[in-house]
Write a structure and sequence with these properties.
429 residues, Rossmann fold, 3 domains, globular
Length: 429
């Protein structure tokens, strides 16, 4: 198929690259001309395992980038992957989606051939039934369902494994209201549907709700695991041993049972906040989800309690290892390091931040946090080190321990291999 992918962020770029490797002819559309130029030069501008290799194999051949929405009219399918952030109340900002839909509708207004618009951006069911179709119809100049059709096809990609997740999905969710829509989505995903993936065919609003339910359930599971981990720590029990046994129950499953400093990223916090706000908008107080969110906000500050067992935080030299919200990405959205740094700064600690990726730029948000790229240099003279991201390099933190003034290590991710030379404290074990 000839496909346009609107939005060249984490989701859009990985999707465009994989679709091109599947044999589709793909045009990446983005209003950021610098990003367009970089992608055409073979630079995706994001850190994601396996992505650069895919880009190298298809750019200039089956993948091109442009800032012109005119490219939309040249294909049979347009995939929207623009961001949907939330405000301070958790309400979803659909402004970018509406703007993109307006441009897509305008580009398709003079066309004559059938076209499928696929919404991958995460928007509430309410918006799928109102704002989204209304905006597309207003610029298209004709009712949806005659020539141009709308589908909701949520993505289930995790940063750090986004390429692999799209190449090998556990499930595909197709939301549409016409058999033709499902036929086109099957063409788009022919490379993986042939491998007998689980395919859910439903209406657009239900498809949108499935995405929220998926993310919020996983966030809730992690908050429960972290709370159990805290209780295990109080009783001197290794939470990881408990969770290993818990994961043997097929009603629970072994994944997402790693307790630690909390969950972050661009999706779990945003989607949990959005679902809480949407429930309140409809007159329902989602108390359980509010507690899930509150538990996650408290979790990284447990590090403070552990530090205080070993030193006085005020004026202490502390090295925080890890700024990205998870390893193998440079994304700091929702990073649990941010609230920890804020608390340490308020407590007048002298803090260095290190991270093997570009995420180290998080230090710029704080007046008194020094960014140091080299791990040994970051640990030099430190009174304690706190590990907040499970980068593989931090497993061998013991190799750098001689640089520290006092080798106190607080591990928030169970990523460090303890040695006899360090005073080691695990967050929930």
């Amino acid at each position: 198929m000839q496909v346009s992918v609107v939005g060249s962020g984490y989701v859009g770029t990985t999707i465009a690259a994989v679709l091109a490797t599947w044999g589709h002819s793909v045009t990446a559309v983005d209003i950021d001309t610098d990003r367009v130029a970089a992608l055409n030069a073979g630079d995706p501008q994001i850190e994601e395992p396996g992505l650069q290799e895919l880009i190298d194999g298809v750019i200039g051949d089956r993948l091109h980038a442009t800032a012109s929405f005119g490219a939309v009219a040249e294909g049979a399918c347009t995939v929207l992957t623009v961001p949907t952030p939330t405000d301070s109340t958790g309400a979803v900002d659909t402004g970018a989606v509406e703007a993109a839909l307006g441009s897509v509708g305008g580009a398709l207004s003079d066309g004559e051939t059938p076209h499928l618009v696929v919404l991958k951006s995460t928007v509430p069911p309410r918006a799928v039934e109102s704002v989204v179709p209304q905006q597309l119809e207003s610029t298209l100049g004709e009712p949806l369902g005659d020539r141009v059709h709308l589908a909701v096809n949520p993505e289930f990609q995790a940063q750090g494994s986004a390429v692999a997740d799209f190449q090998d999905p556990q499930k595909l969710v197709f939301g549409g209201d016409d058999p033709w829509v499902f036929d086109q989505l099957e063409r788009l995903y022919a490379s993986v549907i042939d491998q007998r993936r689980q395919v859910v065919q439903t209406d657009p609003a239900t498809a949108a709700m499935i995405k929220y339910a998926n993310n919020v359930f996983l966030a809730s599971k992690l908050s429960v695991v972290n709370e159990l981990g805290n209780i295990c720590k109080v009783h001197g029990v290794d939470a990881y041993e408990v969770m290993e046994a818990l994961g043997m129950d097929d009603r629970i499953g072994a994944r997402f049972l790693r307790s630690g400093a909390g969950w972050g990223g661009s999706c779990f916090p945003k989607d949990t906040d959005a679902l809480i706000a949407e429930a309140m908008r409809a007159g329902y107080d989602a108390e359980l989800l509010q507690m899930v969110r509150a538990q996650n906000e408290r979790q990284p500050l447990r590090v403070i309690d552990l530090l205080e067992r070993h030193l006085t935080i005020e004026r202490a030299r502390l090295t925080v290892c890890g700024a990205a919200f998870k390893p193998h990405t440079d994304d700091t959205r929702g990073s649990r390091t941010r609230p920890l740094l804020r608390e340490l700064q308020d407590r007048a600690a002298r803090v260095r931040l290190t991270d093997p990726s570009g995420a180290i730029g998080l230090a710029a948000e704080f007046e008194d946090v020094e960014a140091v790229g080299d791990l040994t240099a970051a640990l030099q003279g430190a009174d304690a080190a706190v590990v907040m991201t499970a980068w593989p390099a931090y497993a061998r933190l013991g190799e750098h321990i001689t640089a520290m003034r006092t080798p106190i290590v607080i591990d928030g991710r169970r990523g460090v291999e303890p040695t006899d030379a360090m005073t080691y404290e695990g967050l929930t074990w």
